[in-house]
Design brief:
Layout (H helix, E strand, L loop, with lengths): L4 E7 L4 E3 H11 L4 E8 L10 H14 L8 E3 L7 E4 L3 H6 L4 E4 L17 E6 L13 H4 L4 E9 L5 E11 L5 H12 L2 H11 L2 H7 L3 E3 L10 H24 L5 E5 L14 E2 L6 E11 L2 E10 L4 E9 L9 E4 L6 E8 L2 E7 L5 E9 L3 E10 L3 E9 L2 E8 L11 E6 L8 E2 L19 E3 L2 E8 L8 E10 L4 E9 L7 E9 L4 E7 L1
Parallel strand pairs: 1-3, 1-6, 3-5, 6-7
Antiparallel strand pairs: 2-4, 7-8, 8-9, 9-10, 11-12, 11-30, 13-14, 14-15, 15-16, 17-18, 18-19, 19-20, 21-22, 22-23, 23-24, 25-26, 26-27, 27-28, 29-30
Helix pairs in contact: 1-6, 2-8
Length: 523
């Protein structure tokens, strides 16, 4: 049996770590791929000096937003490791632990030039990406500068130089107008990085792992430091004014998704959505997530129909008529819990549906008894898991399942794409891809329709949610590598809303040989 990776934790001068790191280590300790063996005690990371008005701003946010799901409160971690604690300067004793990985806590005052004996390097999570890399205060500048996303990464420090290897680079939606909420969301999201990559190192050989993440970059320290009192006055006024505008717009504009369609062939990014026909909404609904099926020379759109009176959605269907009109909606699937994203597909001359049932913590498979309006439950493909917008594709003798997930209640479900595979559609044992999550960018992650083939290549539509508007835009990715060890895709073009398309958002995309359907918010 393969031995678990031996993990050491480099902490400050106590056994207390912030709650998000504690949760991360708990995840690791409950699985077979790694064992937390020792705590290495060093000096505490010295907090950056903060201006009086920044400290006052922090207290205001604490009182206004409360401390539910507090990511930075300190928790004692003695109960989740099994062997001993060692001073950081006792190199011989650290070496005797035969560690595979040392994780450097944010509490540790650790210099890269220090050499610690470890097989696969010292791993560390850095908050901020690009010009915000390691900025202080963390997650502050992205909010104040109105950035669409905030990033963080997991790096492996090369202790013999100032180089690093980035093994996880993620970006999540910036929580507008609140530094506290933005940092909380980012830290809880980052708590999943180390478990995912340790499992990948365990599943793959170290040679394969470091071949994949071999590119090294220079370790750079951001020049952005804690703002002074004058700058805090400006940021507070600017942030407050932006928040008021946001509230007024939300109160005066009711943005509802609807479905648009056109009897024209798919034409890459050149399709003009302004020419599409819009399906009218009632006062009590919005409709979204359209999937189009052609059967017996007829076109049917399956979609989510959300009723405000019930505060949940069911799955409905419309037929597109030859004259360009659509029939009335017919409910085809309704449950006590929310349903959406009706992924309908044909296999061996039968139609199947996998609606999103994340609210029930299941992935449910249905078979069509009478097309298009009668569907029978077949089985749960997965249970006790919350997967968003499951999208299946059959390739090279295997079924591949793409879906997004949410690792914590305060994080978004739009920036971690998981991949599973099985040789049998009717299986409840889907194997997680070792590279999970295979996509981690909020602007190009969550599924936005079926995977399709064009000119011998596979393409995956994805939502671009790097905006204050959910479902803002679409990106189309070419799948370059798809196998049990590796997944790789490259963005080929983007579909944006705007004046040309007469849309405020465009969120889903599917087509047959002569009809294209989308959903969006019409201006």
């Amino acid at each position: 049996m393969k031995q678990p990776l031996r993990i050491g934790i480099l902490a400050g001068n106590s056994f207390e770590l912030p709650a998000w790191e504690y949760e991360m280590l708990q995840q690791i300790s409950k699985n077979e791929y790694a064992s937390i063996c020792t705590i290495i005690i060093s000096e505490n990371q010295e907090p950056a000096k903060k201006s009086f008005l920044y400290r006052l701003f922090t207290k205001f946010e604490d009182s206004w937003f409360g401390n539910k799901y507090d990511a930075v409160k300190k928790i004692n971690i003695k109960n989740i490791f099994s062997e001993k604690n060692i001073p950081a300067d006792n190199i011989q004793e650290i070496e005797s632990c035969n560690l595979d990985v040392i994780y450097i806590s944010v509490t540790a005052n650790y210099q890269l030039q220090q050499v610690l004996p470890v097989r696969y390097g010292c791993w560390k999570i850095i908050v901020g990406k690009g010009k915000y890399f390691s900025a202080t205060p963390p997650a502050f500048w992205e909010v104040m500068n109105g950035e669409a996303s905030t990033g963080s990464s997991l790096i492996i420090c090369n202790t013999k130089s100032e180089n690093q290897i980035t093994v996880y680079s993620g970006s999540t939606i910036t929580i507008p107008y609140s530094v506290k909420n933005n940092l909380r969301s980012l830290l809880w999201k980052s708590s999943s990085f180390l478990p995912y990559r340790l499992k990948e190192l365990y599943d793959l050989s170290s040679d394969l792992f470091f071949e994949k993440y071999k590119c090294e970059t220079i370790y750079k320290v951001s020049q952005l430091k804690s703002p002074g009192n004058g700058l805090m006055i400006w940021f507070f006024l600017k942030n407050s004014f932006s928040y008021l505008i946001y509230k007024v717009r939300n109160a005066t504009q009711k943005k509802r998704f609807t479905i648009l369609f056109s009897n024209q062939p798919y034409n890459d990014s050149k399709t003009n959505f302004a020419e599409f026909k819009t399906i009218a909404l009632t006062k009590d609904n919005f409709i979204a997530d359209p999937f189009i099926i052609k059967k017996d020379d007829k076109q049917f759109i399956f979609f989510e129909e959300f009723l405000y009176s019930k505060n949940k959605a069911h799955i409905s269907v419309k037929e597109l008529l030859k004259n360009g009109d659509a029939t009335e909606s017919v409910i085809v699937l309704d449950k006590p819990y929310h349903l959406s994203y009706p992924f309908v597909f044909e296999w061996e001359n039968e139609f199947y549906m996998i609606p999103e049932t994340a609210a029930n913590n299941t992935v449910e498979l249905y078979r069509c008894k009478r097309f298009p309006d009668q569907w029978d439950f077949v089985m749960n493909l997965m249970e006790n898991i919350s997967l968003i917008d499951c999208t299946l594709h059959f390739e090279n003798g295997k079924w591949w399942m793409f879906a997004c997930t949410q690792n914590h209640p305060v994080t978004t479900s739009n920036d971690q794409l998981l991949l599973f595979y099985s040789e049998n559609l009717f299986s409840n044992n889907w194997i997680a891809h070792p590279q999970n999550p295979v996509a981690t960018d909020i602007s190009n992650c969550r599924p936005a329709g079926k995977i399709f083939s064009k000119d011998g290549k596979l393409y995956r539509p994805a939502q671009n949610n790097a905006s204050q508007q959910y479902g803002y835009a679409l990106k189309i990715n070419c799948i370059e590598i798809l196998n049990e060890k590796e997944y790789k895709e490259t963005e080929v073009f983007e579909i944006l809303p705007g004046v040309k398309n007469n849309l405020l958002a465009v969120h889903m995309f599917n087509f047959t040989d002569d009809t294209v359907v989308i959903d969006g918010i019409v201006k």
